[in-house]
Design goal:
MJ1316 RNA cyclic group end recognition domain-containing protein, five-stranded antiparallel beta sheet, 2 domains, alpha+beta, 7 helices, 278 residues, MJ1316, Alpha-Beta Plaits, six-stranded antiparallel beta sheet, single chain
């Protein structure tokens, strides 16, 4: 389904500003295949609605917390979104921005409770093939490079606006206005200006350099049928006869498990490993 109207420059600017408008975020990564032609985005739509409810719950339990709920998905690059669209996949992350005026609130137990309940829902539990769902509390600096999805599910941004939840606005205010004062960071891309270090060199360093724990990283690779898939760096192998062999030309990116942040990306020329940025 195509959006009823194009995504406006106002939406694009607000999305960029949103990424720098809060010190902490609930980051929810999701990856799933379309299983129903009549409702291809059923799971991500359900997840988005559930996150709206989580925003209300957080401010009801922690009066000092202000929550901004962005309605659409974020991706690392438009190329990733296009690959997912072409393979009938939804893959990206939802973000809830958190501001705490007291610094005493502990949202983590509430977020974990929400995740546990969402995983029990029949739609998620019975979904096949099993979707990927990862939920984290991350700092703003740990988001890495992200941009609005304008390819897989753009109608989410056409039909909705971000919502602000606070103790004084329990039902949420739907507007771009409260992001207007937050200015987008000037291109936060961590791109390398020289020759990009090959994936093989990055993977070998993550596996054998004592300064890294290979279990903390995953390889994102392209499958022509299933879209963008993942495998742990510790499982990746160069032996073509092994089960977990992935040809180098199919490796799209590498990301860190604890934050979800992309640390190497072929198309976007991101490399946080060689430069020692981690």
């Amino acid at each position: 389904m195509s959006p009823k109207a194009p995504i406006t420059p106002e939406t694009i600017q607000a999305g960029s500003a949103f990424l720098s408008a809060s010190p902490t975020f609930v980051r929810v990564d999701i990856a799933c295949k379309h299983v129903d032609d009549d409702a291809p985005h059923e799971l991500v739509e359900s997840l988005q609605k559930s996150l709206t409810a989580l925003g209300r719950t957080l401010v009801s339990r922690h009066e000092s917390i202000q929550v901004t709920n962005w309605p659409g998905l974020f991706v690392v690059s438009s190329a990733d979104g296009l690959t997912s669209k072409e393979t009938r996949q939804d893959r990206g992350c939802f973000l809830l921005g958190l501001k705490d005026s007291s610094s005493n609130a502990e949202p983590d137990p509430t977020v974990k409770e929400w995740e546990s309940e969402f995983r029990k829902l029949p739609l998620f539990k019975d979904y096949y093939p099993p979707p990927l769902l990862e939920v984290r509390l991350v700092k703003q600096a740990e988001l890495g490079q992200l941009t609005l999805d304008r390819c897989m599910w753009p109608e989410a941004l056409v039909n909705s606006k971000p919502q602000l939840f606070s103790s004084s606005l329990p039902d949420g205010e739907e507007s771009f206005a409260f992001i207007a004062d937050a200015h987008p960071d000037p291109e936060r891309k961590s791109t390398t200006t020289g020759k990009l270090t090959p994936a093989s060199a990055i993977l070998n360093r993550l596996k054998w350099d004592d300064g890294f724990d290979s279990k903390e990283f995953v390889v994102v690779y392209e499958d022509r049928h299933d879209g963008l898939m993942e495998i742990g760096v510790d499982l990746w192998t160069t032996e073509s006869s092994e089960e977990h062999f992935i040809p180098m030309h199919r490796i799209r990116s590498i990301r860190k498990k604890t934050t979800g942040m992309t640390v190497w990306h072929r198309e976007e020329r991101i490399d946080l490993i060689s430069g020692g940025s981690l």
